[in-house]
Task: inverse folding
């Protein structure tokens, strides 16, 4: 698999100046909004039953970045969340672990201590989350602190103001600098906050910008605005990673985040992955859900498949 350095080399001419980068991004094919939304809606009607549904539920659990990003987060809350990530259903030890626990940088060490010896990763938001409005040295320090505390993954936010003002090279260089800070110590997820990008064309441009700059994942949202992950914007990003791999040989992950709350919705997203990017992305190394409440619904549906009875929310822990 080519390295991200190869991607930088492949697009060296494109990223040489603001004008060449703008020309490339605005030269990407325009998005047919009606067609995009119709395809997303059509794929969402696929029916998944019995053994396929059981497989999809376990796969979705294994793809969750179990998340708490609140000002009121305490060490106790983070420890409880990390314990749940390792053992989501204490009544059934066959339940998969989640992919990661996602917290603020000051909670990374707390989560890491609980997750030691497990396969669950620690992800940390950084770069002045959720606004992304800070000087680059501050963003680099934020990232460095999280990695020093033990973060395996960094979820950075782009400066949407710079992007919407057309300062694409500035955004590119900031992503590349954060990727360099991560090095081989942490994978980098780049958050676009798609609800603030206004158009599908902007989401496509941001996707290519992030991938060219070295993102390991492209991510829809912070979960802190009114419009977060939708089937349509996720479908568009899945098309982008598919096309990027076809052009460069480099595979990039996708993470829809915010607003995915139940099993039915999660399975719709898995169908989007399979039908758009393909089965190579049906793995938590390449696809994640940024969620908190989703896990409980998946657990209740899993219990129902196993017992024939719907257990209800009293049978799962409250996050």
Result:
């Amino acid at each position: 698999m080519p390295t991200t350095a190869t991607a930088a080399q492949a697009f060296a001419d494109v990223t040489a100046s603001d004008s060449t980068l703008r020309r490339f991004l605005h030269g990407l094919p325009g998005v047919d909004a009606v067609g995009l939304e119709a395809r997303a809606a059509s794929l969402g009607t696929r029916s998944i039953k019995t053994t396929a549904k059981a497989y999809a539920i376990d796969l979705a659990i294994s793809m969750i970045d179990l998340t708490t990003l609140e000002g009121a987060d305490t060490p106790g809350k983070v420890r409880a969340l990390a314990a749940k990530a390792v053992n989501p259903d204490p009544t059934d030890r066959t339940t998969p672990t989640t992919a990661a626990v996602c917290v603020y940088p000051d909670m990374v060490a707390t989560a890491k201590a609980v997750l030691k010896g497990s396969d669950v990763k620690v992800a940390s938001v950084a770069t002045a989350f959720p606004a992304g409005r800070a000087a680059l040295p501050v963003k680099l320090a934020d990232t460095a602190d999280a990695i020093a505390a033990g973060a395996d993954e960094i979820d950075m936010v782009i400066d949407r103001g710079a992007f919407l003002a057309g300062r694409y090279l500035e955004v590119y260089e900031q992503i590349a600098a954060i990727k360099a800070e991560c090095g081989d110590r942490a994978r980098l997820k780049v958050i676009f906050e798609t609800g603030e990008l206004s158009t599908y064309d902007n989401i496509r441009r941001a996707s290519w910008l992030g991938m060219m700059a070295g993102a390991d994942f492209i991510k829809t949202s912070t979960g802190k605005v009114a419009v977060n992950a939708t089937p349509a914007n996720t479908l568009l990003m899945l098309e982008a990673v598919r096309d990027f791999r076809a052009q460069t040989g480099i595979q990039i992950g996708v993470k829809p985040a915010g607003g995915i709350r139940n099993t039915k919705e999660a399975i719709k997203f898995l169908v989007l992955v399979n039908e758009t990017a393909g089965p190579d992305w049906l793995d938590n190394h390449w696809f994640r859900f940024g969620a908190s409440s989703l896990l409980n619904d998946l657990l209740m549906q899993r219990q129902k498949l196993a017992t024939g009875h719907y257990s209800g929310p009293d049978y799962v822990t409250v996050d």
In short: The mean pLDDT is 94. The radius of gyration is 19 Å. The first strand starts at residue 64 and ends at 67.
